[in-house]
Amino acid sequence: MLIGILMILAGFVLLFFSGDWLVKSSVQIARYFKISTLVVGLTVVAFGTSAPELIVSLKAVFDGVPDISIGNVIGSNIANIALVLGLVGIILPIRVSKESSVMFDWGVMMGASILFLIFIQNEVIEFHEGIIFLILLALYLVFSIYKSRRKVSKSDEIPKNPTLKMKYAIALLVLSAVGLYFGSDLLVRGVVIVAKGFDISERVIGVSVVAFGTSVPELATSIMAAVKKETAISIGNIIGSNIFNILGILGVTSILKPIGVSEMIISIDIWWMIGVAVMLMLAMLPLKHSVISRWKGAVLIGTYVSYMLLLFI
């Protein structure tokens, strides 16, 4: 049992630092090609913060524990909104700019969630459904990059210069990939050991412990943004990460191997994920003066705590 707990902790640490290194190295490489920071944010950073979820989900499916894979995505999406944005809102109220694309991105996230719900009714996400997820993700990224490039051309934004030599950026990228692999391996194996030891289902562990661990990069990034009073970036990054979790992670994973889905996930967990997404929209009302205030942040945190208590009780 102790070995399993130590493996989980070691996996958390490796995933946290590896995800951070992946984002930093990728941004540096992107700057060598003179890519706009807006484009980098929509592609590189979104992929980087979701990389732990992707590696863990792939590892879980091929290890024969699909509930950890699906639970990881659902639990991570719940944690990103209810826990991460809740904490950020309590630290510093989040003001949503009317000029931002948050409302459009929220609509894409909700649409992806509903499609996810439809696909799992037969208790499996199949190859062709994974293809559909990836096509939709590609369309979303192309459209988002097109919009961001138009904004850049209007604002005359000059892409930033790299601060790291190319060879060091590539070395850091390789190191982060290795760290993500071994971190996910330790986390999944440790979770299976602990779940068996405490007689807890893999589904519960997946949507709670594993999901929290893979959401650590988003949590750390958003809290640091709040401390620096840059809360506006938090909500966009979280919604983008949730879209990538569904369309990208489940898309890639189900193409490589169909993902089995348990009845409990279909009847309980995915509804919590959709419910939390609806709560986020309600928290952003009224749209003309959208602010996720401290009391709204507290409600989101309370929702996350309630979900965790129901899971383990």
Q: What does it look like?
A:
With 313 residues, the chain is an all-alpha fold. It has a single domain (2-312), classed as NCX, central ion-binding region (A middle domain of Talin 1). Helix content is 81%, strand content 3%. It contains 11 helices and 4 strands; from the N terminus they run H-H-H-E-H-E-H-H-H-H-H-E-H-E-H. The chain has helices spanning 2-32, 37-62, 66-91, 102-119, 127-155, 166-198, 202-214, 216-227, 232-256, 263-283, 294-312; strands spanning 94-95, 124-125, 259-260, 291-292. Strands 1-4 form a two-stranded antiparallel ribbon. The protein has a two-stranded antiparallel sheet with strand order 2-3. The chain is globular, with a radius of gyration of 19 Å. The model has no long low-confidence stretch (mean pLDDT 84).
Remind me, CATH topology? A middle domain of Talin 1
- pLDDT below 50 for ≥5 consecutive residues: which ranges? none
Question: What integer is the average pLDDT?
Answer: 84
Q: How would you characterize the largest beta sheet?
A: 2 strands, antiparallel
- The domain tally reads 1
CATH class: Mainly Alpha
Q: Compute the CA-based radius of gyration.
A: 19 Å
Query: Terminal Cα separation, in Å?
Result: 21 Å
Number of strands: 4
Globular, elongated, flat, extended or rod-shaped: what is the shape?
A: globular
- Run of helices and strands: HHHEHEHHHHHEHEH
- Can you tell me the CATH superfamily? NCX, central ion-binding region
Task: Report the structural category.
Answer: mainly alpha
Treating each run of at least 4 consecutive H or I residues as one helix, how many helices? 11
